[in-house]
Design brief:
This protein has two domains: 146 residues, 3-Layer(aba) Sandwich (D-Maltodextrin-Binding Protein, domain 2); 132 residues, Periplasmic binding protein-like II (D-Maltodextrin-Binding Protein, domain 2, 3-Layer(aba) Sandwich), CATH 3.40.190. It is 33% helix and 17% strand. The strands form three sheets. Strands 1, 2, 3, 4, 7 and 11 form a six-stranded mixed β-sheet that branches. Strand 1, helix 1 and strand 2 form a beta-alpha-beta unit. The longest helix is centred in the N-terminal third of the chain and has 16 residues.
Length: 348
């Protein structure tokens, strides 16, 4: 999915651990004081968690922005995703945190409501910001009710769908061809079994046993119904989870993995497949893994999406930029807004 109608934005992803936080002023401070660099530029701190090729791309864009003008200097700091979630709120409270960060809409909503993030409706109100080119449903994801007022609280950073990446050497060795691309979830599990070696030296798929919201929608009824009712304990969900329990017990995937461990299993040659976003392409190339991809196959779930479809197991990562409340109305805010415009232009 493109963030702008004319823009191919950086595809990057990851998710932050949501944590309980205590109140800050939603409006932020009003000080015009801001730290400056030795050459007089306003220093702005960014936190991000992109540690691979996507991080190099982001750093390149930041470098180009810093060279493009003489008022602001973005300091892009790499932080583990978990560290951002664990430490950001405390540091922002003391005024020693990042000025802006990237995370998803779910985390961003909570932090916007409690005041850790300050909303950016004024950025959208500026006709020169380019926000009229943003896709409507992408903006809807970060439009929240803040103290009774509808506010836009984030700026699109990147969207990326998941796919099944597979080791082409292992695929061929198992006698599989393009005709064997699975069309259903059950077929995917059968392919994984064919790619598994009984001596434990090779697993069919590196499948994390967390973050299963898309799978429960694609194969069951989802965690919640579309009207917000809890539906985790349905017979359809139970049947799917029992099927996957048997799959793990059969030794076709390592159990107890998160997404990072699953990717490492694939990139080390331990597992033949993994379900992850497009950043896997460069990571696998760097590790010398010959690879290709096919769509995540549908299941037979009964969850109905707003467009009327059902059975999809495809997840996606949607990331946004968020301004922290320590920025307030200081000189940093305009520099951050200028970066948002720069980042989401056509070339970048």
């Amino acid at each position: 999915m493109r963030i702008k109608k004319s823009t191919k934005a950086l595809a990057a992803a990851a998710s932050l651990a949501m944590m309980a936080t205590v109140g800050l002023s939603a409006c932020g401070g009003s000080s015009n004081d801001a730290e400056t660099t030795a050459d007089g530029k306003v220093k702005i701190t960014m936190w991000h968690g992109f540690s691979e090729a996507d991080g190099k791309t982001l750093e390149s864009i930041v470098k180009d922005f810093n060279k493009s003008q003489d008022k602001y200097e973005i300091d892009a700091q790499l932080q583990p995703w978990s560290t951002i979630g664990e430490t950001m709120v405390t540091k922002v409270t003391s005024g020693d945190g990042p000025d802006f960060v990237t995370t998803g809409a779910d985390n961003g909503q909570g932090w916007s409501i409690d005041g850790t993030f300050q909303c950016v409706t004024d950025f959208y109100d500026d006709k020169d910001s380019g926000t009229d080119e943003y896709i409507e449903n992408v903006v809807d994801q970060i439009t929240f009710n803040i103290d009774g007022s509808e506010e836009k609280c984030g700026v699109p950073m990147g969207y990326a769908p998941t796919a099944v990446w597979y080791n082409t050497d292992m695929w061929k060795a198992a006698g599989l061809t393009d005709a064997d691309y699975p069309q259903t979830w059950d077929e995917l599990l059968e392919v994984a079994k064919k790619l598994t070696k009984s001596d434990g030296s090779q697993y069919g798929i590196a499948l994390p046993d967390l973050g299963w919201a898309p799978f429960l929608k694609g194969n069951g009824t989802g965690i919640y119904t579309t009207d917000g009712k809890v539906s985790i304990n349905t017979k359809e969900n139970k049947a799917f989870l029992e099927k996957m329990r048997d799959f793990y017990k059969g030794g076709y995937s390592v159990s107890g993995m998160d997404e990072t461990a699953a990717r490492e299993s694939f990139e080390s040659g331990q597992s033949a497949m993994v379900i992850v976003g497009p950043w896997e392409d460069q990571a696998s190339t760097d590790k010398g893994i010959n690879h290709d991809l096919f769509p995540v196959p549908n299941g037979d779930g009964t969850y109905v999406y707003p467009d009327g479809t059902k059975g999809s197991n495809t997840g996606s990562t949607g990331l946004y930029w968020w301004v922290t409340s320590q920025v307030g109305d200081s000189a940093k805010k305009q520099g951050i807004y200028d970066f948002f415009k720069f980042y989401n232009n056509h070339d970048n």
